[in-house]
Write a structure and sequence with these properties.
Layout (H helix, E strand, L loop, with lengths): L1 E2 L5 H9 L5 E5 L2 H12 L7 E5 L10 E6 L13 H7 L6 H11 E12 L3 H10 L2 E10 L8 E8 L20 E4 L1 E3 L2 E2 L1 H7 L7
Parallel strand pairs: 1-2, 1-4, 2-3, 4-5, 6-8
Antiparallel strand pairs: 5-7, 6-7, 9-10
Length: 206
């Protein structure tokens, strides 16, 4: 499932990456749902992607092997006058805790949650997921250039017993994997070899 699918881009990429995947893409915004339905309908993957309008906070959508989300993450920030953009960006529409709570009830055994969030909110997401029995199993920091600090972090969680998450020292002592780093550009305008290798299948020209 792709939560907060927007234009459907992540759902489409997931379908292209995994030819056996059947994907449910949901969004709370009816305009986004219509756009995603149009994009999916024009793709080669239309028979494997269902786009639905749904509020992830209000009941079970289904049960999934994997849940993907680029969640809203701004807190206490100036709101955009465009309602759709504000809904997509501000976490009062889907807090990290709301996300983790509902993910934990809709993942199949050994299922995974994958998110992309600002690097500075890493511990907020880990704390929310730990509360709902989701263990961090993989993370990658993303930076634009080798000289820049990471702006985003990719986190993957798996359902676990809560007792295996919390150590006596608290959340900082969770047995996290060693993080990787993905650099997008070697120099401004020149993508790195690893970035091109990761995304070349999604571009007509790279």
């Amino acid at each position: 499932m792709d939560v907060g699918t927007g234009t459907g881009l992540i759902a489409l990429m997931a379908a292209q990456r995994n030819p056996s995947a059947h994907i449910t893409a949901i969004d709370i915004d009816p305009d986004a749902v219509r756009q995603a339905q149009e994009n999916v309908g024009a793709s080669p993957f239309a028979n494997r992607i269902i786009v639905r309008q749904a509020d992830f906070r209000k009941g079970v959508v289904g049960y999934f092997d994997a849940i993907l989300c680029n969640p809203p993450y701004f807190e206490n920030a100036l709101r955009c006058p465009d309602f759709s953009r504000s809904t997509a960006r501000h976490s009062d529409t889907l807090s990290f805790d709301d996300l983790a709570l509902n993910v934990s009830s809709q993942l199949l055994p050994l299922g995974t949650l994958s998110v992309i969030i600002p690097a500075e909110r890493r511990m907020d997401m880990i704390a929310a997921c730990a509360t709902h029995n989701l263990t961090l199993v993989r993370e990658t920091y993303v930076r634009t250039l080798p000289t820049k600090h990471p702006k985003r972090v990719l986190l993957e969680f798996r359902l676990e017993e809560l007792s295996s998450l919390i150590r006596p020292g608290g959340l900082e002592e969770i047995d996290n994997p060693s993080p990787a780093t993905l650099t997008i550009e070697a120099t401004p305008g020149v993508p790195t070899t690893e970035f091109k290798a990761l995304l070349k299948e999604f571009y007509l020209k790279f």
